[in-house]
Amino acid sequence: MSDKTYPVSEETQARALVDQATYDTWYRESVENPDAFWGEHGKRIDWSKPYTKVKNTSFTGDVSIKWFEDGQTNVSFNCIDRHLETRGDQVAIIFEGDNPYIDKKITYRELHQHVCRLANVMKAQGVGKGDRVTIYMPMIPEAAYAMLACARIGAVHSVVFGGFSPDALAGRLVDCASTFIVTCDEGMRGGKPIPLKDNTDKAVEIAAKNGIDVKTVLVVRRTGGKITWADGRDVWYHTATQAADAACEPVAMNAEDPLFILYTSGSTGKPKGVLHTTGGYLVYVAMSHEYVFDYHPGDIYWCTADVGWVTGHSYIVYGPLANGATTLMFEGVPNHPDQGRFWEIIDKHQVNIFYTAPTAIRSLMGAGDAYVTRSSRKSLRILGTVGEPINPEAWQWYHDVVGDGRCPVVDTWWQTETGGHMITPLPGATALKPGSATLPFFGIRPELVDNEGNVLEGAADGNLCIADSWPGQMRTVYGDHERFIQTYFSTYKGKYFTGDGCKRDADGYYWITGRVDDVLNVSGHRMGTAEVESALVSHDAVSEAAVVGYPHDIKGQGIYCYVTLMSGREGSDDLRKALVAHVRNEIGPIASPDKIQFAPGLPKTRSGKIMRRILRKIAEDDFGALGDISTLADPGVVDDLVANRQNKK
Ligand code: ATP
Ligand code: MG
After folding, report:
1. d(CA 80, CA 60)
2. Distance 104 CA to ligand 2 centre (A)
3. By CB count within 10 A, which of 81, 237, 240, 421 is most buried?
4. CA separation (Å) from 112 to 90, 471, 488, 505?
5. What is the DSSP string of 558-577?
6. Which segment of the chain is annotated as a signal peptide (predicted)?
7. CA–CA separation, 182 and 494 (whole Å)
């Protein structure tokens, strides 16, 4: 843990929506009287029928979670129509292409027309309330139109990341019995076409063998590349939407009607179909988007996630648009045409709020400062991170180099399951500590428990649970409520268990230490893999590190480190020794790595998270059983890791 603290600067304080006193008061109200607190804040969205009930939730028995249950609203209305009068001509979406010469701005009025036309096309194709629509798209505005069109007519979307294989897509089609797909001919990433339509064709075939007959594939023309066409099933998006009416009434939805299904990233096992509903979700993501990013009208906001992840759902599409913000969608990758792309885009569009992942930060840090410092970045005001624990080294670089030391870094801890931010700083209210997600958001009651479920008080290290419900919480695992109860509510009775380990320091700050499954126990000492990784990455030869435990005769568990070096550095036994010494020095002898394997690449999910379960298997020399690797970004790295393993039996 880093012992540095960054107090809120006067400049940030002066324009912040929430200062420390407000945070303290609101937080207390939110946990002492959730009905009153959320009853008030629920009004931030428009309801066609106002709610009279606020919270009706239980974490025991059958586990039932309902918020604003007798209210009616429509998410698409809240994200579009209600802004038309005041900001119809304001830009809603800035599209920045993979190719730096391509961009496009879509106003709220244009957004309204696109979404209405598409909603009418869907209706004409027989899609109705409750039907599941699969969206398999690159990062182009039509992906957002499709999500909003579903919301408008009450269809439930399941966005499948455009980088997934036909198998992964088919699995998700079958899991939620979805027979309508929106896709595109090809995506473009880093100058290379991605064959989305081809993949879709293959997935449709696989789904058919598993009992799901896809009726319609709506195809956006992005590249004009060659594709095969199934008459009667495939429909061009542009012809269908041109012919459709540009007006479509939003359907009144009950607060608890499903909005979307989204499969978790699969870092720890088979992905779960997380179901989110309408009212509480929208209230929660809109509110957290505004306060966590200290969003002010007119700000240009950019979240680099893909719409295929929950971050894209909550903080590219729904939260920002519900707030009438300008949200940037980037089609490409951080290193095309070169590693300075992010910082160029920030200057080009004068981005004020920038939200990305530690994996991107670490890799751009590895590329060297010159890519950053050649840009101005003067427009930046707030920086954010999400997805994994951020090691203090990367935090510091992000803060000092990217933000020139001016911009608070909000390290937001949350999950697909939680819908929105859970533990996070608020820029005007929270002093920052590099590597800590800091304090709970409104309404969130974190608890640390030991393995027996005893609640730990004060400074402590334990399993992170949430004691009570919040409006953005998932409601069930689609089609498998039992799995929902088993996964989240059975380990510690009456609490939502996050699966993450966490420390709380004497100031009440939370430090996520990684998945509980990843905690090391070396000679009786518990430590998070994240701690050892941070120590390794703080060595100047190391760009990334992943640490796992393996059975060790004497110590119980040994420490096995996979290390990716900075470009230009070579692995050697001397460097191994230097790294061991470095970790001993940073943490202590107890954390001495037993094995160090130099790895040109680490096995990551498509969202950039390291799949430690694969690394654990390789470290245990048990690579015959790697489990579900369908969400792995580059299966090729596994072969290299296996070939160079340091623990051959
Ligand atoms: P699966 O549940 O299928 O194994 P996943 O947990 O990777 O996949 P997500 O919901 O995308 O799926 O990720 C949530 C997890 O990411 C959290 O439980 C936590 O481990 C990690 N995480 C996210 N943000 C942070 C953060 N700011 N600090 C530390 N860890 C984070
Ligand atoms: Mg998870």
Report:
1. 38
2. 35
3. 421
4. 12, 27, 38, 47
5. EEEEEEEEPTT----HHHHH
6. none
7. 40
Q: How many CB atoms lie within 10 A of CB 574?
A: 8
Which helix (H) or strand (E) element contains residue 303? strand 300-303
The closest-lying atom of ligand 1 relative to the alpha carbon of residue 631 is 3
Query: 3-state class of 228 per DSSP?
Result: coil
Give the Cα separation of 296 and 12 in Å (integer).
Answer: 12
Q: Is the CB of 312 under 6 A from ligand 1?
A: no
CA dihedral over 363, 414, 498, 477, signed as positive or negative: negative
CA distance 361 to 95: 22
- Partnered with residue 355 across adjacent β-strands are 303, 384
* Tens-place pLDDT, residues 93-105: 999 999 999 999 9
Task: Give the residue among 539, 531, 544, 534 at the shortest CA–CA distance from 501.
Answer: 531
Ordered strands of the 542-552 beta sheet:
542-552, 556-565, 595-598
- Residue appearing with tokens 């309204």: 112
Average pLDDT over residues 337-366: 95
Q: Of 97, 45, 52, which is closest to residue 70 (Cα–Cα)?
A: 52
Q: Read off the pLDDT of residues 188-246 as tens digits, 9 standing for 90 and up.
A: 999 999 999 999 999 999 999 999 999 999 999 999 999 999 999 999 999 999 999 99
For the Cβ of 386 lying below 6 angstroms from any atom of ligand 1, the answer is yes
Number of helices (H), then strands (E), belonging to the chain: the values are: 22, 31
Q: Residue 482: name the closest of 628, 272, 256 by CA.
A: 272
The Cα 516–Cα 164 span in angstroms is 27
Residues 6 or more apart from 247 whose CB is under 8 A from it? 116
Instruction: Over range 137-160, report the average pLDDT.
Output: 98
Give the ligand with the smallest distance to the CA of 309.
Answer: 1
Query: What residues are paired with 95 via a beta bridge?
Result: 104, 329
Q: Which two tokens stand for residue 86?
A: 């005041």
**Residue 251 corresponds to which amino acid?**
V
The neighbouring-strand residues paired with 187 are 194
Distance 414 CA to ligand 1 centre (A): 7
Question: Binding residue per annotation — 523?
Answer: yes
415 annotated ligand binder:
yes
Q: Omega before 141 cis (within 30°)?
A: no
Q: What tokens were used for 224?
A: 């004009």
Quote helix, strand, coil % in the chain, to nearest 5: 35, 25, 45
**Which residue lies with its CA nearest to atom 1 of ligand 1?**
266
Residue % of the chain over a pLDDT of 70: 99
> Per-residue confidence at 556, pLDDT binned at 50, 70, 90?
confident
Q: pTM here?
A: 0.91
Structure tokens at 119: 């909603």
> Which stretches within 308-434 are classed as H helix?
310-312, 319-322, 341-349, 358-366, 370-373, 392-397
Q: Which residues pair with 627 in a beta bridge?
A: none
| SS3 sequence of 546-558 | EEEEEEECCCEEE
In Å, what is the CA distance from 341 to each residue of 328, 367, 378? Answer: 14, 12, 16
Looking at all shown ligands, the one closest to residue 272's CA atom is 1
Q: What is the dihedral of CA 358, 362, 368, 370, to 10 degrees?
A: -10
Q: Is the pLDDT of residue 476 over 90?
A: yes
Query: Mapping DSSP to helix (H, G, I), strand (E, B) and coil, where does residue 120 land?
Result: helix
- Would you say residue 368 has pLDDT above 70? yes
